[in-house]
Protein 1
Amino acid sequence: MPPLAGVAQTGALPAGPSLTGPVPKHVAIIMDGNGRWAASRGLPRAAGHKAGAEAVTRCLRAARANGVDYLTLYAFSSENWRREPSEVADLTGLLRFYLRHKVAELHREKVKIRFVGEVGRFGQDLCAEMARAEALTEGNSGLTLLLALSYGGRSDIVHAARALAQAVQCGDLAPDAITEDMLARYLLTAGVPDPDVIVRTSGEHRLSNFLLWQSAYAELVFLETLWPDFDEDCFTRVLNIYGRRERRFGARPA
Ligand code: IPE
Ligand code: IPE
Ligand code: MG
């Protein structure tokens, strides 16, 4: 098999079955289970990450085919720096490969790419490639793909709080004038609607510091599927589960 076979597999979009409920505008996914996928096959964890990267291509195809506007993928948390340096290097290598070989194709597909997280920690070269990818795709009108890399929800909120504190200190803002919308405008996801649904694969039932502010009213969907096995059918399953949920936002049940 050639390395990262999924890279070349975009092509025509799958038709996608007809869905009954509303399609979420913003789907966010905690892509978990690469290590267990590899272990169950007697493979090194790196093989799981490589297969996980191929699942990203399938997921993106499914999101586009179903008319999702925003797809946020949690690829590396601020806590994932605690992993073995060799595993971090494997993940960084994959990121570099995709930035070099995939961005042009995403651009042709009119995907708008945005990175959220403390991406400076990946070093100057990668950071520059990420900035180039964002600049190249900025004007695209298709799906917006947010890649959460070195992302932490608490840190996101702390940075927003600091920016607001700065404005207060300068005398530009009264503490009482701070609103939820204002704080949201300082988050890394500024301008992006909150996720309608947050999916986590691999059977874990936690957020692991993902979109803590933005998840306030997200529907949570937990799948047993390990991320490298995620495919278009899994995406449809998520949409069907979401479509059956009744969202109330605190109001009286219908
Ligand atoms: C998700 O898979 C990928 C990252 C967190 C980078 P894991 O590497 O966490 O896989 P498991 O949870 O050990 O199976
Ligand atoms: C969460 O998965 C982060 C990503 C999927 C990128 P982890 O595997 O790092 O989360 P924990 O450690 O099980 O909570
Ligand atoms: Mg994990």
Protein 2
Amino acid sequence: MGNRSSLLLREEEIAQLQQDTGFTPNQIERLYSRFTSLDRGDCGTLSRDDFLRIPEIAINPLGERIVNSFFQGEVSDRVNFRQFLQVLSQFRPTKKNKENKNNARDHKLRFAFNMYDLDSDNMISKDELLAILHMMVGANISEDQLTSIAERTILEADEDGDQKISFEEFCKALQRTDVEQKMSIRFLN
Ligand code: CA
Ligand code: CA
């Protein structure tokens, strides 16, 4: 991708993006216009500040964590359109009867897990759980209550007794909840 002066996507680019992300051409076009409207400098990439202007992210208690998820791995300080779509595809509500449904669910679980795993050591500790709870509930609940929620959550999910939640334990704990619905953020409306 890189820098571009044209605001239009070429057909072969759309086809490739469709294959990589599962979005329909129509959705890709709409997300592209969304992308370019956020791209104030018209440089083909977005900064953290650009993301924080997305209303759904600005009002989300986990907004900053969500923005961080765009800036992982090979991505340093700017996100191009392909990387943008790849992260968004993890929030996409999956269609019923789709053959890669399990795969999509795994991705969402991994994504959610990473959101909690603040220090990226592949374990969710009580402190990390507490930090996330703080972000989500603000000041409405007392510190003691939050601590007891975090402790109870760890206790319920922790199967090997190391006081931390591994990805496997996390998946089992969430098995009965509708992760896809919870993780779906409506960027497309
Ligand atoms: Ca951790
Ligand atoms: Ca454990």
Protein 3
Amino acid sequence: MFKEKTPLVSHIFTADPSAHVFNDRIYIYPSHDIAHNGEDNDDGDEYQMEDYHILSMDGDSDTITDHGEALHMKDVPWVSKQMWAPDAAYVDGKYYLFFPARDKDGIFRIGVAVSDKPEGPFTPDADCIPGSFSIDPCSFKDDDEQVYVYFGGLWGGQLEKYRTGSFDPNGTEPAKDEPAVCPKVALMSKDMHTFAETPRDVVILDENGNPLLAGDEDRRYFEGPWTFKRGDKYYFTYSTGTTHYAVYAVGDNPYGPFTYKGRILEPVLGWTTHHSVLEYRGKWYLFYHDCELSNGINHRRNVKYVELKFNEDGTIQTITP
Ligand code: FUB
């Protein structure tokens, strides 16, 4: 593996890398940032992405392949704008791309698209996943082949607007001394096009077994979930958003609860901290992004990776970019 800590590609802006190993090759499912001169705001209007390009690489060269446009929003009937952070899963000979976008009413939903190849092109379903909401879907396939999708993001991602169980356009975050908003998880149905259950809360606990509080911005969930298994432990990783850390929590099953353990990555150049973790040829890697190529413009990001190291007790060594 080469190119560690350097932008993997520079001909397009890329972000939110979801990395998987398929056929002994690393496939990266990133957002494709669009350069424009609009202002940033708390709704994420600066993230105007319209399509996805899948990247791939192997362990034997420094060549990164951009497989070209894999899916464009003009081909997705339910989407109005903002194709944000995607992920993919392989099940029974097919590759499934999960992606969030705003529907025609401006509400974020999650869609599915299918391909015979990991790099696409992907054919989208005509409608979004029924009952889906918010952003940042990530998939996790457990040892029993069951696939779970985790999702949710505050502010622009609208997660705090579902605290009553349905969409409240005026919904806000809890008070600082109340439990934080939880990310969600749902088991996928066997055909991978629908949730097999109503999404559940992913509860993240502190060292005393209490749910993290909304005011605990160094540790509470903001966006960018990722789940992986190491040994018999399930690791749930995520971004703390306003404090810009990538952090992790550990549990005993895919639904949690997960207990907060520490930081994976200190803040990078740029506001967002979206990442993924994968094992490849016996080593672990963190895929992440920063804004090096644009000198810090938040919506012009570039994907990178770095080796991730574990301590003997399963804790993760914090990376300082
Ligand atoms: O790329 C748009 C949004 O920015 C993602 O959905 C978030 O995770 C953040 O990286």
Protein 4
Amino acid sequence: MNLPEFPVCRPRRLRQSPALRRLVAETHLAVSQLVLPLFVRPGRRLRRPVAAMPGVFQLSPDELVGEAAAAHALGVPAILLFGIPDKKDAAASGAMAKNGIVQQAVRLIKKELPSLLVITDVCLCEYMEHGHCGVVRAGKVLNDSTLKLLAQTALSHAEAGADIVAPSDMMDGRVAAIRAALDAHDFQDTPIMSYAAKFASAFYGPFREAAESAPRFGDRRSYQMDAANAREALRETALDIREGADIVMVKPALAYLDVIHMVKSEFGFPTAAYAVSGEYAMIKAAAAAGWMDERAATLESLLALRRAGADILITYAARDAAKWLKG
Ligand code: PBG
């Protein structure tokens, strides 16, 4: 490109007023892009604050409905649901129970708020006594025996009325296993949003308190991706798409903008970015200390995800962001 030079070219001409800046903005944030993650646990009138995530609570189903309704009233189109069961075991039986906490919550929300999209996180870590995302034998997380449990879990979510299922476990072949189970039971129209490129990340720290899902031994590096690898993220995403993923996700978000950009440019699929618990906690902590403007920092980081190529923004700040975008 042969660009004119100063003084013919003056980029500041287009920055003179809010209206001019809006007119030439390349990227837009909209409430319709936001997904709010919520945590549900058994009980009534329960709102347990998550210390490391101010403004986030573990909610009983009745409270969950109120929280979801408030977000939906602001225009947030979807929630992403995580369950915390009363009991954990070595087979994650609570994950796929007909009357499990997520299944109950989905039924209730779909009844009370039919136009709100309910996405369910499909994983076993919250339901396993050892806190890993799969079946463990002799200290190893087994891939293939985990697939059956994940498929049953996803199917039970669809049966409860989930609009989209979102596997976050990072086992190989899980999208195909889930697609097959859904199709075999007449859920061929239930979309899968796969956590396609999910990295083993320190930014999940606060979530493990929120979901009570910290691994009891070792870490998740044998199944989640190494932060060093972006090209591998493309291979992971390609596999998920081939197996039937309808929406692909990159997680975490802000530290992986390059991956979001590569995934969107390479495949052009609907792409979600998950601004995870640690990203939320950092802004909250800095804002509480008076070191950063919470609103400006939140909206700027969400805009960065859009600029990188994300279509769907999963964020604990969805409610606030919706409010700010309206105002
Ligand atoms: C479960 C799961 C995790 C997150 C989403 N699903 C935790 C993990 O992998 O350890 C993290 C979300 C967040 O940090 O906000 N597998």
